[in-house]
Amino acid sequence: MDELDITQEKKQYYQLRSELVIKNLLRRNINGFYAADKSEALNTVMQMIPPGALVVRGDSMTVEQLGILEELTKRNQNKVVDTFQRDAKGEMVHGSEERSRMEREAFTADIFITGTNAVTLDGKLVNTDGMGNRVAPIIFGPRKVILVIGANKIVADEESARERIRNIAAPVNAIRHVMKHNRTEFENLPCVHTGKCVDCRHENRICCATVIIEGAMSWNQDRINVVLIGEELGI
Description:
The chain is α/β, with parallel strands linked by helices and 235 residues long. It is built from eight helices and ten strands. The chain has helices spanning 7-27, 38-48, 61-66, 68-75, 96-104, 135-139, 158-181, 190-194; strands at residues 31-35, 54-57, 79-82, 111-114, 118-120, 125-129, 144-150, 154-155, 209-213, 224-229. A six-stranded parallel beta sheet has the order 1-10-7-4-2-3, sandwiched between helices. A four-stranded mixed beta sheet has the order 8-5-6-9, sandwiched between helices. The longest helix is centred in the last third of the chain and has 24 residues, at 158-181. The radius of gyration is 18 Å and the shape is globular. 36% of the residues are buried.
């Protein structure tokens, strides 16, 4: 027995927390599924996407880590709209006008797939966006929404969710865009230099719209689908 290896303990911990979240999601008319690892999560997601469905991807590191777009391309049965497609240097493939047009396709898509900044133990989904192009389609538009979420994003309550966004998700994401994507417009954001939110009024602030989804109407109970993964994924 290796006392220094707590892999199995963490797996059980993440599964227990995920199962509690899923139970509470169902009470809110949101579907919940548990996947032990990335491979199982990818299989779960692919089964949710029927041939011929138009799939639009929202910004999400977890979507990339699962390899969902690559698997859809390999399957070659769906039109996939990826506004965040990048070249080998990390530069956006599509110009701003084309990206804006593509982002609007999310509202008429069959499936919108993205991640979530935080999910509470009682089943609330908490997200913060710069422009709203991720949170808006989660709320309304596409026929089905698939949210892939690492169990590390499970938090106690709404305040803990906001704390996670302010002091983990937002700063790390801003730093990522500066370091990997050469987004110089974010270089002077306070969180890039302090590692925490100071509720700035910077002209390029990335935290402009916060949305808390507390549930779905009964006739929309199969629209939002959450896949919780027993690994640490995303930001």
